[in-house]
Amino acid sequence: MSTPAPLLCEADASLLALAKALRDGGYRFVTPTPATHARVNRRPGNEVARDLRGVFGWSRPFSPDVMPAELFALMQRAEVAVPESEGGLWRSLVRLSSLDGALFLHSAYPTDAADAVFFGPDTYRFASAIRIELAARAAPIHRAADIGCGAGPGGILVAAACPGAAVAMLDINDAALRLARINAVLAGTSNAAAFRSDLLSGVPGDFDWIVSNPPYLLDPARRSYRHGGGSLGEGLSIAILDAALERLAPGGTLVLYTGVAIVEGHDAFHAAAAGRLAGMDMAWRYREADPDVFGEELEDGAYDQADRIAAVVLTITKPGGR
């Protein structure tokens, strides 16, 4: 197995301490879509942060006196406070979002960097899909994987629900692995570990449970959290499906949450999945979790033939097991 991400360095320990202080102080924030985020921040009076939600949720420039001095000191030691070019204001390089009573560190808005670590409405729908499938499972889970874990919410949710399982949080983005590792410690899920891996190539053996929330859009900048490849963003989702089918243990389940461009009523990802599963002894279900997401993408030339972009959940279970 690949070597897991290293133990906490001084900057990571300070970032963890910052997140714990915010959590213990009652900080909460639900992260919306980037389009909603931009609209809210454009409102008069929202030019600068007035509270901690403005700093760590809305990613607004802030004056250090908006927070206790010890929090700003932790930000500096964690290397996540950067000065604005003028005005004596600062910005946070991270956001913190609430999910199931826990907090998750991820990248600040706007997520323009190639290695940005995304968290948003897709994360909440992904978590809901995992909860639904976990509730329906009777067999124990010993080994689990979160492919393309990002900030780690999927793997951490599984680790919290199944404390006896060893959960591998997998990504090729080192920035994501750093935050997933810190988020796992923050959540108290010592059974979740972060590994650098392209799909499942960096970890051996089979898995009782595999989850994934891959990027599924076409992104000209090819940002790792956003660009899915293929003709309309489905490429990585299909690659994850293929990798998981080879590595499910008997009785194992894949929960794949993704998005697909519907073109003249045709769902290309459903067709690809059905083609791969035809003749295989697998039980599977496919449903639309949301019929219309990221509608603003339809204004881009890449989607000029699409009716809509739907969020879908593909669940596959291999027969066998105890």
UniProtKB/TrEMBL annotation:
The Gene Ontology biological process terms listed for this entry are: methylation; rRNA processing
Q: Where is the Methyltransferase small domain?
A: 141-256
Name-wise, this protein is Methylase of polypeptide chain release factors
Top-rank taxon, per record: Bacteria
What terms describe the molecular function in GO for this protein? Answer: N-methyltransferase activity; nucleic acid binding; S-adenosylmethionine-dependent methyltransferase activity
What are the protein's UniProt keywords? Answer: Cytoplasm, Methyltransferase, rRNA processing, S-adenosyl-L-methionine, Transferase
Q: Which InterPro entries match?
A: DNA_methylase_N6_adenine_CS, RsmC/RlmG, SAM-dependent_MTases_sf, Small_mtfrase_dom
Q: Which PANTHER family match?
A: RIBOSOMAL RNA SMALL SUBUNIT METHYLTRANSFERASE C
> What CDD domains does the record tag this protein with?
AdoMet_MTases
Q: What PROSITE patterns does the record tag this protein with?
A: N6_MTASE (PS00092)
To which species is this protein native?
Belnapia rosea
Signal peptide start-end: none
